[in-house]
Write a structure and sequence with these properties.
alpha/beta, six-stranded parallel beta sheet, globular
Length: about 375
Amino acid sequence: MMVKPHPVFLIKADNQFFPTKRMHIVQLGPYPPPEGGVCRNILAIREQLVKNGHQCSVIATSKSPKIVAEPDVYHPQNPFQLIKLLSRLKFDILHVHVGGELPRRVLAFLLVCSYFGWQRSVFTLHSGGYASEKSKTARKYSLAGFVFRRFKRIISVNTLMVKMFEKFGVDKKRLRLILPFALQNPDPSVEIPPSFKTFAKNQHPFLLSVSLLEDEYDLFLQIDSLERVLEKLPEAGLMIVGSGSLESEIKAAIANKSYAHKIYLAGNVEHKITLHLINECDILIRTTKFDGDAISVREALHLETPVITTDNQMRPEGVHLIPIQNSQALSEMILYLATKPEKNKTPPHSDSRNIEEVIKLYQEILEV
């Protein structure tokens, strides 16, 4: 099942060479498009692994509207194909990423992965909302507890999640708190589509929302709230980046508004372009009914872009909080931030420490 030990070779870091074993990591999780937060974490880990001279394969666990053939990327169409892949691929570490809820079918999927990964399996739960819901009811002698304990290491994305896994009976030594993002600067060589540029240039303030077009992101709230904003700031406009199952409903909701021309539904956008939009917008909006952290929020803070987000008790410092599903609070916060004097942004530095911590975790497992 597992690959034979790879030859030792030299990796250069900080002008020094040190020996390391070439690893083959297999990651399972959603693969773009659409490009959500979990996808970004998977891609960032893959990019860093390849940069360090390792191999990384990805098994997509979500349906993609556009599958492009890529080396070491697999798109099984059913559970049988997934099991066949897991039994055929040779790897050193199996890393499973899951976001959202964990119903029995997802727990069954994790159980299968833990079997094939055995003592070289890693699990990252990206759903802070699940942790807030289960932290009080988690029990060691439960199906979830049994499944979680089968993984060699579990990566938690916040402190509440660490406590939850402990209640599920996971040994503290197997838990790691690693935030699921790498902070990058916009690539100056990337071209923003002309229609995006035109819309952004003509909106004052230019409001941006980045999320999947799903119910938990409360996008109808943003659309409705813009009406109050336009009464005071008629040049304001909102761009919504993302795709999802509610696309047709959101299009209809926008079309029914008298200010439909002030809302741009951009669809799925490559991350390298989205990063430019986050940097250029006046305010990033993140409204949710159920979620934990968000990479777009972290990226906006990194780029010193003001952020408005619903309060879920797990937001990072520096954001402007509003109550969940409160349209008036959102409108008032937009108006407040839009009238504040603009600050000169300090050019940020890229930060991949979180991703490097994940790779160190892989090496730790192999050393054991």
